[in-house]
Amino acid sequence: MSIKLCLRKDEARRHTLAAKRQGKKIGVVPTMGALHRGHLSLVNASSSDCDFTVVTIFVNPTQFGPQEDLASYPRNLDEDLDKLEGLGVDLVFAPSEDEMYPAGQSTRVHPPKVAEPLEGQFRPDHFEGVATVVLKLFHIIPADVAFFGQKDFQQTRVIQQMSVDLDLPICIQVCPIIRAADGLALSSRNAYLSELDRKKSASLPQALKIAAEMFRAGKTDPEPIQAAMLEHLSQAGIEKIDYVVLADPDTLLPVQSVVRGTMVLIAAYCGNTRLIDNVCLG
Ligand code: AMP
Hints:
Layout: E1 4-6, H1 9-21, E2 26-31, H2 37-49, E3 52-57, H3 77-84, E4 91-93, H4 97-100, H5 119-122, H6 126-140, E5 145-149, H7 153-165, E6 171-175, H8 195-201, H9 203-216, H10 222-235, E7 240-247, E8 263-270, E9 273-280
Parallel strand pairs: 1-4, 2-3, 2-5, 3-4, 5-6
Antiparallel strand pairs: 7-8, 8-9
Helix pairs in contact: 6-7, 9-10
């Protein structure tokens, strides 16, 4: 079966509802395209768990800050469709900006509290844009399960909390981070990295590994763990670090004492490219 491409909301919704009426379990994988193995792992999770898989491809302008990379964000729908071939995808929804946000729309979702720290501090309107577009996508594609990557851990918490708070009838499934051979988490933005910055970028997963090893060795004070991570990043030539935090997995606020399940989260720049990564301890 070939993949059905829908550019319009009403068409995508009609096809999804038709599958639902046949009793099919619907899975949705929201993406911004420039697909890589990380995205495809979510697609595989959906097609093995669900009977009808929808992939959405939309570079959502409302989640980019004014100084961010909206204009240069990689877009290639034909390549993305080729990558999805043979993975059990039934429908791709790839709307234009006007289709998603017709002129005059101004309603926005105020994200939950868990959106405030970390990314919320450095990208002030980011999660408002994410929550708004994800809620819209959930209405356009009334799926049973939505698949998200742990790569964007705070995003998964924001969406889980929004789904609980707004009683959304959808299950949020979080899938593991897919990494390159040297440990760098795959990301569409890795394409921006120069050869030198790509080498430096391996220091992010290395710093997470340092945290995991110190925890395994019995350290429970977050400060020396954070210090060792910062030292490693700076030795590797990472000059700009937004945060290196050991945080509670529910609130994402810094912990006083590290326990199994504590999240370690990093946001840092390699050259001009902002990278994020995380690990769950234990
Ligand atoms: P994006 O296209 O960056 O908005 O990402 C779409 C979805 O893919 C999000 O749920 C991301 O968390 C997920 N994702 C991105 N990179 C990875 C990765 N390396 N491993 C697993 N999931 C990922």
